[in-house]
Design goal:
This protein has about 80 residues and is mostly helical. α1 packs antiparallel against α2. The longest helix is centred in the middle third of the chain and has 45 residues. The chain is elongated. The relative contact order is 0.06.
Length: about 80
């Protein structure tokens, strides 16, 4: 998804003829940081999806094993929500 645009940017930077080589090195360094950050975000998103699925499964299991308690907790949440809490 984002890999292709980053690869294009990297190619342009590497082919660029900048008057100061330090600028080119800095651009490449920043691009590497950006790639690392994008990779971390993708991993975080995968972990969040996995946690969400686990929470949904645990909620369904709780509701199945404690239907009255789940119903009462739901009613309390609705009441709190209606008063803005």
């Amino acid at each position: 998804m984002i890999d292709e645009p980053l690869a294009k940017i990297e190619a342009v930077i590497k082919q660029a003829r900048l008057s100061d080589p330090k600028n080119k090195k800095e651009l490449i360094r920043l691009l590497e940081e950006l790639k690392a950050e994008v990779g971390r975000d993708a991993k975080s998103e995968d972990m969040l999806k996995s946690a969400r699925k686990g929470l949904e499964a645990a909620t369904l299991e709780f509701e199945a094993s404690h239907p009255q308690l789940a119903s009462m907790v739901n009613e309390v949440c609705i009441l709190l929500s209606s008063v803005g809490i």
